[in-house]
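User: I'll paste a sequence; please echo it back and then give the predicted structure.

Assistant: Echoing your sequence first, then the prediction.
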Amino acid sequence: MQNKLSAEELAYIIQWDIKNWKRALSFWDKHFEIKAGMRVLALGEREGGLSYYFAQKGCEVVCSDYNEFPDSTKKMHAEKGVSDQISYKQIDMRNIDFEDGSFDVVVFKSVIGALGNKEDQDEAIKEINRVLKKGGAFLFAENALGSRFHRYLRKKFVGWGERWRYITRQDLQDWQSNFSSAKTEAFGFSALFGRSEKQRSFLGGVDKAFNPLTPKGWRYIYFGVMVK
């Protein structure tokens, strides 16, 4: 069962568009049981939010990022009392510096798009699978390609929108070929258009109500649990 998280904790873990992206946590919890003592590799963790989330569940977490961590990440973990359960490492997710079968869980949120091309993304997924134990889970929440309107606005208003490679349904199908089972869900349409977190929160409520009526190809977030 998912721990009850405060609004402050959710803001630290999710950071942006909280109402929609926080749904990843309950989706993961529904499809894979996290147990205290599990070893977790969190990728793309500059601010360390997901590392905190799994550490407070009793897991031993490797908090990793491609770049060096700012001092604020370790400071925040110390303030939240989870430093003893977290170690830090610079990692290129295309070449993960751990042995085969090292982790019970590998997790990321809004990370793999930064690789910019399908070849590197597919290589990262193979590496994630390699370092997972048999029966371990790859948990993710990632930006989906979305509708043509989403794609237009990202190119126009998001500084890195043209460099980011957004994930498609075909990508998910390709990833699944590396795993024994997979559960995925697409969510959200309108909250991406919010210009402030207050607006995104309001539009996230709209998305909750109308998500079943929105074509899957229009949704802008993918949640997933893939088990090795």
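The chain has one domain: 7-227. The mean pLDDT is 93.
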